[in-house]
Design a protein that fits this description.
The structure is a homodimer. By secondary structure, chain A is of the alpha+beta class. Chain A contains nine helices and eleven strands. Helix content of chain A is 42%, strand content 21%. In chain A, strands 1-8-3-6 form a four-stranded antiparallel β-sheet. The first copy, chain A, has a four-stranded antiparallel β-sheet with strand order 2-7-4-5. In chain A, strands 9-11-10 form a three-stranded antiparallel β-sheet. The two termini of chain A are 36 Å apart. Chain A binds a DNA duplex through α8.
Chain lengths: 248, 248
DNA sequence: CCCATACTTTGACCCAGATCAAGAGCCCCT
DNA sequence: AGGGGCTCTTGATCTGGGTCAAAGTATGGG
């Protein structure tokens, strides 16, 4: 399976996202084979730290399954999540040795990693890797800037609705809609982690989720399982431009 | 001057930042010459809009002199600044046609631009351009994420101190210290623009600046000219890790 | 089965920063 | 000089979300 180099494979590969996302079908077969040679897998349990901010980071890699968070912490303990890594997201920085933020697994996590030196060598010989990484990084930058609007200007309710929209949009299980067309997914984060993402306290997160439930914007089963009967309504609550994206 | 291709030039060039920052001395002379062939300059007056979010953007470029801001706006008018472009900063996205945010000149502005198609062609033939752009984009991503911590978790006073630190660090005139070692610079933004960067109101910005002045953290001459007698103190006020960076 | 631990909800109260309002300083134009 | 825009400051008041506190709910271990 991992050695299949057909075009179809490089389209559909979930097994090794860097291969699919960073390299795609544009590179020659030999380079793909080289990537396979130097890659390795790492597994983490929920709650485990992948790397601490400031530590030496001698690898780059992407998420195969599970969810990881990037967080920054002040000396007094205030914490802000600065990124959410879902399957196929890339982490690590060619050309720099220290991690800039804590990376933590919030669920069981599998990453596809490359030791930095061989990866950089390969990147130098394979222009498309740098170009693909550039595209991915620009996407992340756009996402980070969009999040700055959420953090700086949105109300607590809008923040929650924005987070739910993003998770709905990106969570793989979103592809499964119920018979009635509802959007259904599981929250991969605790209330505290959501608070850290949104610049709120966990109490406010809890209150706003309750409020959205009372107002019929979402339905909850247990603490984590969310049903969105009307995605357009949720996007309105988030204060987003009403284009609706994939849900239009 | 613009045709000087000595190594010293590519180190010191202020005239065409993309050449210095995106290409540097690693590329061959021919490619540098090609960059010179396709570049052109654009001038904007203070307050003028470079491009509106959503508009077709058929160029990329970098700031030669002056200051521009990237902002996002909600329908109801709430706006968040998501980036500050100082001289040598790059803007634009190879491979995408629509601008993702408003770009506005806040001072008189000169940009060094490249039409997108020839730039992309050149990038495809010159791997170092993509690699250098990747580095620059990763820097911007780190800065954006650092700003997320400011927006999400810092108090108004800390936000102001953080902004002043960043401007002090990046403003070219910082290199000029007064005889006593004070750090001196001009604020390139109105109170309202600072508020939009920090997720505050302009009244709060004004009050916090007054408070910092009263407490002797900064001194003001007129509305815009700032003197910082003790940079370490300012960084403490910003809640930053006390490494001090260039000011240590 | 019961307890410990971690996560979540809800209530009561408070405060940092928003909002509303009034001037003050400044620059440019006529 | 005098006005008309700006930008900026300062005061008074209000409020969204933080803080503190307590109780509810899973889940897993002994």
């Amino acid at each position: 399976m991992l050695n299949d180099r057909s075009p179809a494979f490089s389209q559909d590969c979930n097994e090794c996202p860097i291969r699919h996302r960073a390299v795609c079908a544009r590179c020659e077969t030999d380079e793909l084979a080289r990537l396979d040679e130097i890659k390795y897998y790492r597994r983490f349990e929920a709650g485990q730290t992948v790397i601490w901010s400031g530590d030496r980071m001698d690898f780059v890699g992407s998420v195969v399954s599970g969810i990881a968070t990037l967080t920054q912490t002040m000396e007094d303990g205030r914490t802000q999540m600065v990124g959410l890594l879902l399957p196929s997201d890339f982490v690590g920085r060619p050309g720099r040795n220290a991690a800039a933020y804590d990376v933590t697994a919030t669920t069981d996590l599998v990453m596809c990693c490359f030791r930095k030196t061989p990866f950089e060598d390969l990147m130098n010989r394979t222009p498309h890797i740098a170009q693909r990484l550039l595209e991915m990084t620009l996407d992340e930058l756009d996402a980070a800037r969009e999040w700055m609007l959420v953090l700086g200007r949105k109300t607590a309710r809008e923040k929650i609705a924005s987070l739910l929209s993003i998770i709905a949009r990106r969570d793989a299980s979103i592809n499964l809609r119920s018979a009635t067309g509802d959007v259904v997914f599981d929250l991969p984060l605790t209330r505290e982690a959501m608070a850290d993402y949104l610049g709120l306290t966990l109490e406010t997160v809890s209150r706003q989720i309750s409020a959205l439930r009372k107002d019929g914007v979402i339905a909850l089963e247990g603490k984590r399982h969310v049903t969105v009967p009307d995605m357009t309504r949720l996007l309105e609550e988030a204060g987003d431009d009403a284009d609706g994206g994939v849900f239009a």
